Amino acid sequence: MTRKLLFIFIFLISGFCGISYRTFATNAPTSTIVSYTICPGVTFTAPLTVTNFTNIGSFTLRIEYDSTVVSFNLSGSSFNPAFGGASINSVPVSGTIKKIMIAWASITPQTLSDGSTLATLSFNFLNGSTDLAFNNSSNGGGDCEYAGPNGIPLNDIPTSSYYFNGHVSSSAPPQPPPITGPVNPCQGASVNYTVAAASGMGYQWTVPSGWNITGGQGTSTITVIAGSSAGSVSVAYSNSCGNGPVRTIAVSPILLPSFPGPVSGPEHPCTGVSNINYSINTSSNATGYLWTVPATWTILSGQNTTSILVTSGSSAGNIKAFASNSCGNSDTATLAVSPIQPPVANAG
Predict the structure, then answer these.
(1) Residue 35 and residue 47 in contact, taking contact as beta carbons nearer than 8 Å
(2) In Å, what is the CA distance from 234 to each residue of 3, 177, 196, 226, 252?
(3) What per-residue confidence (pLDDT) applies to 344?
(4) Which stretch of DSSP H or E encloses residue 3?
(5) Given the DSSP bridges, would you call strands 36-38 and 166-170 parallel, antiparallel or unpaired?
(6) At 6, is the secondary structure helix, strand, or coil?
(7) Distance between CA atoms of 257 and 251, rounded to whole angstroms?
(8) Do the Cβ atoms of 235 and 308 come closer than 8 Å?
(9) How confident is the chain (348 residues) per 10-residue block, as mean pLDDT?
C-alpha cells in the first residue's frame, strides 16, 4: 500500500475509533497550471491556481517539464504571500526532463478562495511543446501531496481529478506544404503559384531575379511574369511571431529563341536559277526554323533548318526566317532580294 493510501486508510480507521482528526476536508484541493501558445524567445509566467484550498497545513508539489522547450526562471517565480517560508527549486530528473519542487508547511493552516494563485512560475520559452505536468506517482505519491493541520495527507486520487497540467507550445508559423505551379514556364508568361491557405497566417513570397510578382503578394496565390533566369519561388507563413520556415520550388523557364540573323545569300540572283543557298545562324533555345520567300520563288529543301536551297523567281521581295520553340518565336531575320532578268534577244 502506498504512503498516501496508507494515510487515508489510517485516517478512516481512526475516525471509526473515535479519534477526532476530521477538522479538514477529506479531499485535497485541485491544482491547475495555465496553458500557453506563444512565440519562441518569450519569457512568460504560468500561475498555479487552486480551488477547495481549505484549512491546509502543508503541501508538496512536483511539476515536470522538458528543459529543451522551456527553461525555468527561479528569480522570476513567486509565492502567494500567505505561504511565508515556502521553497521552490528545479533539478534534473532524467534526459532533458527537469522537475520543479514546491514545498510549504506551517503550524497555522491557510485557506484560499477558489481560483487563488498559489505560486507563479516563470519560464523562458525556447521552441517546441511540453507539458508542465504534475507527477503524483513518484515517491509513493508523496511528491504531490496536500495535508491538513494535523499533517495527515488528503485524498488526491485519481490524479486526473485533482491535478490539471499546463501545456506550452509555439505559435510560430509552421513550414508551408509544397507549392504548386509550373516548374518550366515560358519566359514572359503570366503564371500562378499557390500554397495551401492557413488560418491566421500571412504569406511572404519571393521569386528569382528578373521575375515580377504582379498580384497576390500576402495571399496564398501569386501571379508572376516569368523572367529569363532559373531559381526558386519561395513562400513562408507569417504572423505576430514573424516569418516561419521557407518552402521553395525550383523553377527553370523555357527561354524564347535568340535572333538567328542575318540572312546570308545573293541579293540579286538571276531569275530562274535553282539551288541558290540562303542561311542563318543557329538560334539558342530553338527547336525549329520557318522560312518564307517572295512570290514566284520556290523553296526546294531545308525548311525548318538553318539553310535552304531555292529557285529564284521573277519578282523582288524579302527572304525571311525566324526560330521557334514551344514558347514562341524569335525576331525575324530579313534579306531583300531583287532578281536580275535575263536579256531579251533582238534579231535586229
Answers:
(1) no
(2) 60, 11, 13, 14, 14
(3) 73
(4) helix 3-16
(5) parallel
(6) helix
(7) 19
(8) no
(9) 44 36 68 96 96 97 98 96 95 97 96 98 96 96 95 95 97 96 97 96 97 97 97 97 96 96 96 97 97 98 98 97 96 97 74
Pairwise CA distance, residues 226 & 209, whole Å: 10
Q: What is the pLDDT of residue 26?
A: 85
Cα 232–chain centre separation: 16
For residue 18, what is its C-alpha cell? 473515535
Residue corresponding to grid cell 485516517: 11
3-state secondary structure of 155: strand
Q: Which residue has the cell 521575375?
A: 211
Q: Please give the pLDDT value at position 13.
A: 34
Give the Cα separation of 45 and 123 in Å (integer).
Answer: 6
Reported pTM: 0.69
3-state helix, strand, coil in the chain (%, to 5): 5, 45, 45
DSSP per residue, 23-73? SS-SBPPEEEE--EEE-TT-EEEEEEEEES--SEEEEEEEEEEETTTEEEE
Assess contact for 187 and 327: CB atoms under 8 A. Answer: yes
What is the rounded radius of gyration, in angstroms, for the C-alpha atoms of the chain? Answer: 42
- The three cell numbers of residue 206 are 519571393
Instruction: Identify the pLDDT of residue 1.
Output: 40
Of the candidates 306, 252, 299, which has an alpha carbon nearest to the alpha carbon of residue 279? 306
Interatomic CA distance for residues 90 and 98, integer angstroms: 7
Residues in the chain: 348
pLDDT of residue 19: 35
